[in-house]
Amino acid sequence: MTWTERDIPDQTGRVAVVTGANTGLGYETARALAERGASVVLAVRDTAKGAQAAARIHGDVTVQALDLSSLESVRTAADSLRSAYPRIDLLINNAGVMYTPKQTTRDGFELQFGTNHLGHFAFTGLLLDRLLPVPGSRVVTVSSVGHRIRAAIHFDDLQWEHSYGRAAAYGQSKLANLMFTYELQRRLATHGTTAAVAAHPGMSSTELLRNSPALFRGTLTLLAPVVTQKPPQGALPSLRAAADPAVLGGQYYGPDGVGEVRGAPHLVTSSPQSYDVALQQRLWSVSEDLTGVTFPV
Length: 297
Hints:
Belongs to the short-chain dehydrogenases/reductases (SDR) family. The protein is an alpha/beta fold. 41% of the residues lie in helices and 13% in strands.
């Protein structure tokens, strides 16, 4: 059967933290969970836009400042959430940047790798002890079909200091999201309460594409009716990963259409290299060193 937003179980009493929730997929994810009764935190870089988004959602919604490109901001946000919430049921690592010109984060990391992977790695590690005691809690990390495109973990040049390609750097960050999820699930398995799950939205018409080359954006605009889906549909894989009781740790959800670019959310597989355990563990160790964050698992 096709899984839709109507299949989200009652979320009353649950706390969900959604990064990048002021617009696009994150907003739709937060809205759907709040409408099912969850207390939702919009963890966003621009709190003014976050407040505007919260005002449009019916339910218990608050806003937390979070700039994933700054480890200082990540730590401050995590401290604030730890003080406010003794338990967290859902952490949805949704925020991201795509195809940006060569830039670095405040800590000197390449922007896409630093934001999409390292920021979420640190944020998860700092909040995980709020999820571990909660039965049925989940960490959902949003990857992309881009994890297959020119993607590898360039351990010899993680920050792209010697050369830079927008698509390859994005692919590395999205591949890292998956490797993080699979290694996190391996570590969580002995605890038996929290699960790590991944999802991807296919091709969704969101602000994430604003840094794409003009020719690509123009082509996508022309083909949008057949190759993209609107944010409410694109958010469904994340929502299923977060809320479907049948989901298992270590699974990956995406659209069921041709090429996984659109369609109903269902179980998918990622690239062969994403399942390489040695690479996952090496990336984990490097990520701990770069962020200074260690996990309680």
